[in-house]
Design a protein that fits this description.
Layout: E1 16-29, E2 32-39, E3 42-48, H1 54-60, E4 68-77, E5 92-103, H2 121-126, H3 128-131, H4 135-157, E6 161-162, E7 168-169, E8 180-182, E9 190-193, H5 198-206, E10 211-219, E11 231-240, H6 244-263, E12 268-269, E13 276-278, H7 279-286, E14 302-303, E15 305-309, E16 314-317, E17 322-325, E18 352-357, E19 360-367, H8 372-381, H9 386-401, E20 407-413, H10 414-421, H11 452-458
Parallel strand pairs: 3-5, 6-10, 12-14, 13-15
Antiparallel strand pairs: 1-2, 1-4, 2-3, 4-5, 7-9, 8-9, 10-11, 11-20, 15-18, 16-17, 18-19, 19-20
Helix pairs in contact: 4-6, 8-9
The structure holds aspartic acid.
Aspartic acid is lined by residues 196, 198, 364-366, 409-411.
Length: 466
């Protein structure tokens, strides 16, 4: 017999159905035993009475929460006074005829029928596969999927194509610290995990892919700080010949307006079109470049999207005692005559724009420098010499020397967007298998040591800490 899903039972009154799923809860009322059976479509109530075959009635007494079972039974309409309007299948129940246990389950390490906020996060992450049975987390993952599907559809309609770019790439001074991966075939050499598809997407533009996007995984080995993840997901895009930065900002705005309307209809956006504010104004008026512009901060459904523009191009990096790029080195400075750089790097602005949502930066983009000399100057003032550029960015300068159109792009950090849109405080609540604030995977117990054989094969020696 073919399986019936819980939600399908409501149209099968009087029929015999075979249900499969998880035992959500068990209640005994005298001799009558009720099981709430859970599957991907929701919950259905099953009734077991002593009138059924003894074998099965005895078996049902052995069942514990989260056992996975198969139940054959008849769909009955519940009497009016027994109907439950809280669940979609509340107008029916299943009179069980037989029962089969498909998988037993140990007692869960914590309750899964609550929102889970009061359970220690370490335990939740250690048993993430149990934690994910929670309705709230399933809803978050579903919304995430629906949003990403819609984003893909919108961009496809606008003529963008999604292209996967390498994750194993080369270590280059693009901005963030990278994770490196030792090469077995070329001992002593390393790949770096892509901190973003930035260089590849610009090379795609040089190849004539005028409209690129990717739901991209990015990896950054940054110092652990609370709510960051060493790997995260961006909606990354790039286009040739943009009509100024406005075209890119408008595109992002259009995507988010459609997403909110369709996937988060309960939300309202503070102001459309998304207002713009310069970096200077944000710093002077609000003391930061990510102002929370909600009109009513107690309103859980308000979304204040704001663009911040005209960031400084360079900032002094005390740690390295040199200048660095505020966004990244490929950003187009507003001052395009390198001669004028001498006037003071701190005064040069960039064609950079961030999108801020309720006080969080959810996207950052820029027009890019496509003039090779200007690009070299930018790198030089940040302390990189010709030799280093040749070693690290030869591919990039070479590609540009074969012709590169004016271009620009933006990337939006989706984890943070989902956290805000789903009213979650932590991005860990919107990621299936997140790492802790200090980048550990508590479930897989990673990072972990590797064997001496593996080290040898890779040509590596580990210095043990004293
Ligand atoms: N690659 C940049 C980032 O990850 C975004 C961009 O400029 O498109 O922040």
């Amino acid at each position: 017999m073919k399986r019936t899903l819980n939600i399908e039972t409501i149209s099968k009154i009087g029929e015999e159905v075979l249900l499969k799923g998880w035992v959500h809860s068990i209640r005994a009322h005298g001799k009558i035993i009720f099981i709430d059976l859970r599957d991907l479509t929701g919950i259905t109530q099953i009734v077991f009475t002593p009138k059924m075959e003894e074998e099965y009635y005895n078996l049902v007494k052995e069942i514990k929460p989260e056992y996975i079972v198969e139940i054959l039974g008849e769909v009955l309409e519940r009497p009016d006074n027994m109907k439950n309007s809280e669940i979609p299948t509340g107008s029916i129940e299943i009179k069980a005829k037989s029962l089969k246990i498909l998988s037993c389950a140990k007692t869960m390490p914590f309750p899964i029928d609550t929102n889970g906020y009061d359970i220690g996060e370490k335990t939740r992450l250690e048993y993430r596969y149990v934690d994910l049975r929670r309705e709230r987390l399933k809803r978050n993952l579903k919304k995430r999927f629906e949003t990403i599907s819609l984003m893909r559809q919108i961009l496809k309609e606008k003529g963008f194509i999604e292209i996967e770019t390498p994750i194993l790439t080369k270590s280059t001074p693009e901005g963030a610290r990278e994770f490196v991966v030792p090469s077995r075939n070329f001992k002593g050499n390393f790949y770096a995990l892509a901190q973003s598809p930035q260089q590849y997407k610009q090379l795609l533009i040089s190849a004539g892919i005028e409209k690129y996007f990717q739901i991209a995984r990015c990896f950054r080995d940054e110092d652990p700080r609370g709510d960051r993840q060493p790997e995260f997901t961006q909606l990354d895009l790039e286009m040739a010949f943009p009509e100024g930065k406005e075209e890119i900002m408008n595109l992002m705005e259009d995507i988010y307006i459609k997403v909110i309307k369709e996937i988060f209809p309960e939300k309202h956006i503070t102001q459309i079109p998304f207002p713009k504010m310069t970096y200077k104004e944000a710093m002077e008026k609000y003391g930061g470049d990510k102002p929370d512009m909600r009109k009513d901060k107690n309103d859980p459904n308000e979304l204040a999207f704001w663009f911040i523009t005209d960031f400084p191009m360079f900032e002094w990096k005390e740690e390295y005692k040199r200048w660095g790029a505020v966004h990244h080195p490929f950003t187009l400075p507003q001052e395009e005559n390198p001669e004028n750089f001498k006037e003071g790097l701190e005064n040069i602005l960039a064609h950079q724009f961030d999108l801020v949502l309720n006080g969080f930066e959810i996207a950052g983009g820029s027009l890019r420098t496509h003039d090779i000399e200007l690009l070299k100057t930018c790198f030089m003032v940040m302390g990189h010499d010709e030799k280093e550029l040749e070693e690290k960015f030869k591919h990039y300068f070479d590609a540009f020397s074969y012709g590169i159109p004016p271009h620009g792009g933006i990337a939006s950090g989706l984890d943070r967007f989902f956290a805000v849109a789903l009213n979650e405080e932590s991005i860990r609540e919107v990621i299936a298998f997140p790492k802790t604030g200090d980048s550990k995977d508590l479930m897989m117990k990673s990072p972990s040591k590797i064997t001496n054989e593996q080290l040898k094969e890779l040509g590596l020696k580990v210095e043990e800490n004293e």
